[in-house]
UniProtKB/TrEMBL annotation:
InterPro entries (alphabetical): Methyltransf_25, SAM-dependent_MTases_sf
Organismal lineage: Bacteria, Pseudomonadati, Bacteroidota, Sphingobacteriia, Sphingobacteriales
Keyword terms: Methyltransferase, Transferase
Listed Pfam families: Methyltransf_25
Gene3D superfamilies attached to this UniProt entry: Vaccinia Virus protein VP39
Protein name: Methyltransferase domain-containing protein
Matching CDD domains: AdoMet_MTases
UniProt keyword Repeat, yes or no: no
GO BP, one annotated term: methylation
Keyword presence, Transferase: yes
Length: 221
């Protein structure tokens, strides 16, 4: 079980699932393709960033944390990787923006925020329903959430490229999570499941939209 592993693999004791060489290469790639239209879209949706607290949950190399801070948000970056923390911290200094940093598993994030942003790292969570509960609990009343998840379209596009044994292994894990809500490995949820996960909340606004390989969830609490 993923959660059991987390008791032994502690980031505060040196565990880092992201090798430095990979982190450096991914940083270069991500900073070259920052989606400024996405930043503007979230700004419009959340009625601006100025004087609002924002949690970049799973912030990686910090490319979006920096963009949100430039737009006036008081940003907290949270991620499990110390390598990414070091990179994001240095990038924020270079860009002369003030960002708070928090190291730990996605589930260890704490606080209350006006805006929560989570991009392309949902599948690292231990449990889809419990992670949604956490996300909602981290948002202030009247606050906003904007979440981008690689869905089953993304997963199946990758499975097609694998050898037969791995195809079966990944497919079994996918269906086990879909049917029994138990994750033995990091696996992507379906769009249908994500709609079900978020439909249980009493939001003032909710939109769960499929965008090809991704599902985009936006809500106002």
């Amino acid at each position: 079980m993923l959660k059991l592993k987390s008791y032994f693999q502690r980031p505060e004791k040196g565990y880092d699932p992201v090798p430095l060489a990979y982190a450096a290469g991914y940083t270069d790639f991500e900073f070259k393709k920052i989606d400024t239209e996405l930043v503007n879209k979230i700004g419009i949706f959340s009625d601006g960033f100025t004087n609002k607290t924002l949690l970049d949950l799973g912030g990686g190399p910090g490319q979006y944390s920096i963009e949100f801070a430039k737009q006036g948000a008081a940003v907290t970056w949270h991620d499990i990787s110390k390598n990414y923390l070091d990179i994001a911290s240095q990038k924020s200094k270079t860009e002369d923006v003030d960002i708070k940093f928090s190291l730990g598993y996605l589930e260890s994030a704490k606080g209350k925020y006006d805006i929560l942003f989570n991009r392309i790292c949902w599948y690292y969570c231990f449990n889809d329903y419990k992670f949604a509960d956490l996300i909602v609990s981290l948002v202030n009343d009247g606050g906003y959430g904007y979440i981008i998840v690689n869905n089953e379209n993304w997963l199946f596009s990758k499975i097609k490229k694998e050898k037969l044994v791995k195809k079966i292994y990944l497919s079994l894990n996918y269906w086990f999570n879909e049917i029994f809500d138990i994750k033995f490995i990091h696996i992507h949820p379906s769009h249908k499941k994500l709609k079900k996960v978020f439909s249980k909340f009493n939001f003032s606004y909710l939109n769960v939209e499929r965008e090809n390989l991704n599902t985009v969830i936006s809500f106002k609490k």
